[in-house]
Write a structure and sequence with these properties.
The structure is a homodimer of 315-residue chains. Chain A has helices at 6-14, 18-30, 35-45, 62-75, 98-103, 125-139, 154-160, 176-182, 185-188, 202-216, 238-255, 257-284, 286-297, 303-314, and strands at residues 50-55, 80-86, 112-118, 144-149, 165-170, 191-194, 227-229. With 315 residues, chain A is α/β, with parallel strands linked by helices. Chain A has a seven-stranded parallel β-sheet with strand order 3-2-4-1-5-6-7, sandwiched between helices. In chain A, helix 1 (6-14) packs across helix 2 (18-30). Mean pLDDT of chain A is 82; it is low at 89-99. At the A-B interface, helix 3, helix 7, helix 12, helix 13 and helix 14 of A face helix 3, helix 7, helix 12, helix 13 and helix 14 of B.
Chain lengths: 315, 315
């Protein structure tokens, strides 16, 4: 991996090389300036993978479930990329996956790429990085990309919202269905998964979710949000979950919803790239920016006036 | 409130009028286009309040503690603004405070302004809105502004990070101190509060925190992060907490840390205002933007190239 040079990096990713893909995602995480030249060819070459977002409350067994679903995809001979995104891991960086790769039986299979991502710096950065990492995995030829988030805050909703199919994981007991509702997850789910279906109360949780879905009257077009029971431990319901994902994607293609979501994504990415560009240009000329900060601190001006002045002068 | 017109709104806020202040914060939340003209005079007139961020895990009793601290400030004859920010409340909006205002004995006192804010739309929007709302409360003449967040994700860390003094609340038991550490809260705290100090294990939790602080060796300059026991229910330790806040601010002023934090804030606000401006200008000319989205979707171009083209053409 250390010997991979810049042009080789892009061709390495395009050839599906694991080392090149990993290194590219590191560049994506770091938002390094050289990123742009690599992402441009990758974006244009990116194949159309099925991008699936998986979220749900802590303790719902998302990670194990995602590993089990990935193995099920492998049984169907599809290649899988997994991005485990942890917006709450601000300072520690993302090293949560070592054990999981060993435990999940996912190591050594070149058809699976698994990676954890943590945030660095400003809010919003992680969503951009996650989306770029999805592009890298698409360019690396993965058929399916699963973006998994830990926890249920705004950041998670934003990140998972970038997916084509959004799966929300609940578990029986502890009022999880209510918890999901509270965090707004009921509204964004395309597929509900009740995990640990071997536990007591699983079918009651599923029934509650179905009732809540009925009451919320959320039926985007003709898509009827399914509630699927699954158990990673017993390997039950996994093929049915993948089937629900596939049916959702078919419906999206038929209904025009896929086009709508892809447009929304492309629009967000152009906008993000534009604001990144502007922020970089504002960084470039320090003296003028420092004078603007002085004026704001002295209250002789305000951030809006200074921003306007800087944008007009520098961009 | 309905009769307040635009110029009156600004003078109403500056006079400390509750209705005008509330309406102004609503404009801030909505990111309405007319916001700018109001914020400019408010920013220039804003007094230098002590801005305190309070965060901590769910169940730590933050809200009740903040109410109790606000009442303690009132006993010291200082005016207080409270912003309760809930990044997880994406869809429901923020109506969590009705009961609290009634319960907390805070209603009817013009020296306290309390408001909940929820996010609308994109990640990052809430941090900007929270910072603008702080400006509104400063302009309204509050001596102290407390920004309280619910939960401990990246969004919360970002929002609380905008404060001058950051307080992290723990409670005895349930491994809360470890939980705080995990979320990176140990690193950002200027003051630790162990709430519900009447519970068993409060002093052990405080001792654990002190030990962790010792191990982490975080001593920015000469500031020794205090760990303060408090009980909202028994009204114990509240004056001591306020004293810790005041000592932190004095230290910041002496050490130059306040200047550093205010510069960082001003810089972030100018940058945000600049990217807002750019995003608005990109919105303005739809046909060109739509063609860019088409090119990205057809993979004949990529978001970075299109962003560059749009910025150069439109800004």
């Amino acid at each position: 991996m250390a010997s991979v040079t810049a042009p080789d990096l892009v061709s390495g990713v395009l050839a599906g090389d694991v080392g090149a893909t990993a290194r590219m995602i590191t560049l994506v995480e770091r938002r390094s300036p050289e990123l742009e030249q690599h992402l441009q060819p990758l974006y244009r070459a990116a194949r159309s993978a099925h991008v699936i977002g998986v979220t749900g409350p802590a303790g719902s067994g998302k990670s194990t479930l995602v590993s089990a679903l990935a193995m099920e995809y492998r049984r169907q001979d599809l290649t899988v990329g997994i991005l485990a995104v942890d917006p709450s891991s601000v300072f520690t960086g993302g090293a949560i996956l070592g054990d999981r790769i060993r435990m999940g039986g996912l190591s050594g299979d070149p058809g699976i790429f698994i990676r954890s991502m943590a945030t660095r710096g400003a809010m919003g950065g992680l969503a951009r990085a996650a989306l770029d990492a999805v592009t890298v995995l698409q360019a690396a030829g993965k058929d399916v990309v699963i973006v998994e988030t830990v926890g249920v805050g705004q950041a998670e909703v934003d990140i998972v919202g970038l997916a084509q199919t959004i799966a929300v994981v609940s578990v029986p007991g502890l009022g999880d269905s209510v918890q999901a509702l509270k965090a707004g997850l009921l509204e964004i789910a395309d597929v509900h998964i009740v995990n640990k279906s071997d536990r007591d109360g699983a079918s009651r949780t599923a029934a509650e979710l179905r009732e809540m879905l009925r009451l919320s009257k959320r039926q985007v077009g003709q898509w009827n949000v399914p509630v699927q029971l699954a158990s990673s431990a017993k390997e039950e319901g996994l093929a049915e979950v993948l089937d629900a994902f596939a049916r959702h994607r078919e419906w999206m293609q038929r209904s025009g919803e896929l086009e709508r979501r892809l447009r929304r994504n492309a629009s967000a990415r152009i906008r993000w790239a534009a604001t990144d560009l502007v922020e970089r240009r504002l960084d470039d000329r320090q003296p003028m920016f420092a004078r603007a900060v002085d004026a704001v601190l002295e209250h002789t001006s305000d951030p809006l006036t200074e921003a306007r002045r800087l944008v007009d002068a520098l961009i």
